[in-house]
Amino acid sequence: MRSASRQGSHRAGAARSTVAARAARWAVASGCLFALSASLAPFAGSADASAPAVAAAASSQVTKSVDAARVHLVNGADVVADPRTITVSVDLTTGLRDGQPINVSWTGAHPTGGVALDPNGSLAASLEYPVVILECRGVSGSSATGVEQISPETCYTQTPDQRYFSTNDIWSPFRLDRYSPAAARSFRSGVLDPIPAACLGSLLGLDHWVPFRAVDDTLYYGGPGGCAGLAPEATSEESSVPPNTTFARTDLEGTGSAKFVISTEDSNASLGCSYQVACSLVVVPVMGISCDVAGAALPAADQPPVKYGAFFFQRCSSTGNFDPTIPRPVNPGDEDPAVSGRLWWTESNWRNRMTFPLTFAKPASVCGVVSAGAPTLLYGSETLRQATSQWAPKFCTDPKLFTFRHVMTGEPQAKNLVGAGSISAAIAAGPPSEPFSKPVVQAPIALTGFAITFAIDDPLGQPITSLRLNPRLLAKLLTQSYSGNQTISSEYQALHLNPLSLASDREFRALNPDPVNDSFSTDVASTLFTVSSDSDVIRALTSYINADPEARAWLDGKPDPWGTVVNPSYKGIALPVDGWPQLDAFISPRLTDLNPCLAANPVPWLPLVAAPVSDPAVVALNMQYGIGNSQLVCKNPGENNQKLAAAGRQRPGSRFILGVVSLADAARYQIRAASLQSHITAVPAEAFADATGRTFVAPSSSSLSAAAALLVPDKALGTWVVPYATLRGATGIGAYPGLLLVSLDVPTVGLSTHDATRLSTFLRWVVSDGQTPGPENGQLPAGYVPLKASAAGALLATYSRNAADAIAAQQGYVPALDGSSKPPGPSPTPTPSLSATPTPSPTRTRTPSPSVEPTVTPIPTPSSSPTASPTPSPTDVALVKTGVTTPVSAGPIGQALPALLALALFAGLGAIATTLWGRR
């Protein structure tokens, strides 16, 4: 037994909150005539037509196989049972970042007995023949000198019951494991000596503990309930953010798959995986104990009685209590211990492991270590978070560049600060509400968007993979027009006849006919989780809603065809808005009586259900794990510290939750995203039964490029704006309406030479080298369309290069959007016109006329693409690697392309290659 000398406190800073850690953190080739319809940085890798997928980069998939069997030792001879060749593939093993999911799949494994819908939950460890997936520090193989070797001790599990086994059956199968050393087959192995007093009442006689060895060599023994000490990141109970240790099921054909979320030192300092500390993904297919009933390798005193040999062999070599062909929920203790996932650490199972070395990208936090001097601060949009997390390490480790830090701030606030001269640069995802009062250039640096993400399960407990939403459904969610539960429905007369949640809304069911699981939380299913702070994302979302005649009429008081009405607190609300207001004031008498926290402090119920948060990264984290933030649970009722808390993680198999997340976050964390309605042939006056006549578009590089081609310049605001009315018309039939144009807003007068030089350098790099797609530092991650991937993006990048010259010069010059202006002094590259007709700044409206749509007059050219005709049948534009499924008009940018090419040639751009290369 190990002594207690190393058991104790972990190094300072080990206990880092997962939520806080994750929440805290080539020149463009223009002139390609076919670039409008080609997509060179697709959201590839997903069969789900509604989900942004992993980066379209060079694959780092690794596949390994193992020949596994149970080999019993009977009368000195080997008896082979259940031989199998198991093959495991891991789709991504390099350039990994904290919180990033990777996909593991396998063939040839033994079918799993029992059902546990949550493979990360405590029940899953009781499955029979699961495939166990762990993140472990170290590598396998004696050839790796100077690097820690993997063992069960270096594999992290969040809860102690996943690494200890206690029973009063003194001849439990693990004691008969022929491959385990004698010490591991004793009555008590791995148990802390002396045994802590807190553990004495929990030991059952036969106890095996697998201590966890932290990166600093501290041993955490765990034990029953964690009585002997846990790593700071571990917990004795399940938490909202589930562990990544996975006990996955294998189907009757021997195949299976699982998503595994990577942890680095940013969220698990005790495990300590980083670009400097080697770690591996370890896959252990549980085959069962290979039995040595005679105990040939044990001391005589530990050998089982000979007369019971047949009985012991029958138990040790048994093949399970659950029939894999019959779905049966597992309960701890019901499973056959000989083939239980709880014994993953036994040598019989561990010897069949497959180890996949992982490499990690340098995180942005490395800049605080490797760089000296004050960083350049960029305040603003969270929508660029994933990009700057890959750009920052490149900048601070390149001696030709410098250190910058992206300070996440609401875009409206950042724009106000740059206008007031309080900061030098703002990252925005939309135009300012009013023109800047001083010369500020708004230079495009990224094409991305927002996503309505979802986690919804079907009646079999499996995830639904596609979803259609229209603006009216989004308006219902935002306006708290679903009661959420029967109590509110019966008490709140204004909502009495409305559906309880989105799931029971007949409009939703007409657009999404596939059934959903009926055991979800109706409260959580009645809202759209989003941010409480002012945000360009909220303005874009509400602009999309406001431009839709169905949604706008409903907001103004017209019931939908099934009779659902707007919450009166939001009737007639003026849109768009920067921040969504919480206006409902209904206090439920009955729920106040039933909830001690509300009884002490009565507050309106529906805002508690909506429960917006200040940090968009929290919404992304909650959606990744299906955590409902609705503040409905009274913690510590009756105590002085009682408080309302979140509903928590929705049980896998019965989830129904939606949230607003950036496309880049959705791509990195593999969160499914809905297809949004882009076009309707006619507004129906009566109830409809399906999606006929409506077009829905999924976020993809093609659909984002199509939307970008429709951007129009607003001379007054000094940037390009999204023409939402045009997007929802026939012209935008294949365009994703959640487009966001991210810009770097910088004054062109008043900055120091130091700041101006750095910001102009940053801008030039971002629109050239920073547009190379891929997962490595210095590249553009998934969730963004490289500017060089389309003609529209290339022209925006040209403007940004001219803007960089204006920033460097600091002469108060702002390049004109239409290319009509000339800078003082030597002229930089002329900016091609992106549209012949500037569009006036959008106005906040309540009820736009449904019969008149604003039009954009492009430069008339013979090569303009024809406008697509709307389709009368429901159409989902799926994720594609190249091209656009639905024909799209070239839009104002595309129609002006020949003239723009002439300008580019005049400016000396003709030498740029016409073939745009992108990773597939």
TrEMBL record:
Biased composition range(s): Low complexity: 832-856
Annotated segments matching region Disordered: 815-878
Entry keywords, A to Z: Membrane, Transmembrane, Transmembrane helix
Chain segments annotated as transmembrane: 896-917
Compositional bias ranges of the Pro residues kind: 857-873
UniProt entry tagged with the keyword Membrane: yes
Full protein name: Unannotated protein
Native source species: freshwater metagenome
